Amino acid sequence: MELAQVLDNALRKAAALWVRPAGHPPRLVWALWRDGAVHVAVGGTGQVVPGLADGVDCTLTVRSPTTHSHLVDVTATARLVDPDDDTAAALRSARLNGRPDWDSVYRWDIP
């Protein structure tokens, strides 16, 4: 099975993943896999990921949906996006610790 298919299968089931911006420690974040990208809401009083900014290279660590063990690390680039209403609503509902005051959504394009 090729990497893209493995990632797609794992990220469809993942509620969270580890994000490590270049030069910073990894953070576990609530995430949403949608339209070929991982969406994460950060900022405000919600999730904080030091070093995460538009254009920053990151490493995403994805766990296996069945064993919950390490599956793969992939390199991605953070992109600040303005999500459509459906994506924003799905992201808010996917976050177990979601707050109504989230103010930014970053998108990582998986190569």
In the CATH hierarchy, the third-tier topology is known as: Pnp Oxidase, Chain A
Highest-level CATH class: Mainly Beta
* Dominant shape: globular
What is the number of domains?
1
Protein name: Pyridoxamine 5'-phosphate oxidase
Organism: Saccharothrix violaceirubra
InterPro entries: Split_barrel_FMN-bd
Give structural notes:
The protein has helices at residues 3-13, 85-94; strands spanning 16-21, 27-30, 32-34, 37-42, 57-63, 70-81, 104-109. By secondary structure, the protein is an alpha+beta fold. It has one domain (3-109): Pnp Oxidase, Chain A, CATH 2.30.110.10. The chain is globular. InterPro entries: Split_barrel_FMN-bd. It comes from Saccharothrix violaceirubra. This is Pyridoxamine 5'-phosphate oxidase.
Which labels suit this protein?
111 residues; 2 helices; 7 strands; disordered C terminus; Split_barrel_FMN-bd; Pyridoxamine 5'-phosphate oxidase
Brief write-up:
It is built from 2 helices and 7 strands; from the N terminus they run αββββββαβ. With 111 residues, it is α+β, with helices and mostly antiparallel strands.
Topology at a glance:
Layout: H1 3-13, E1 16-21, E2 27-30, E3 32-34, E4 37-42, E5 57-63, E6 70-81, H2 85-94, E7 104-109
Antiparallel strand pairs: 1-2, 1-5, 3-4, 4-7, 5-6, 6-7
Protein name: Pyridoxamine 5'-phosphate oxidase
InterPro entries: Split_barrel_FMN-bd (IPR012349)
Organism: Saccharothrix violaceirubra
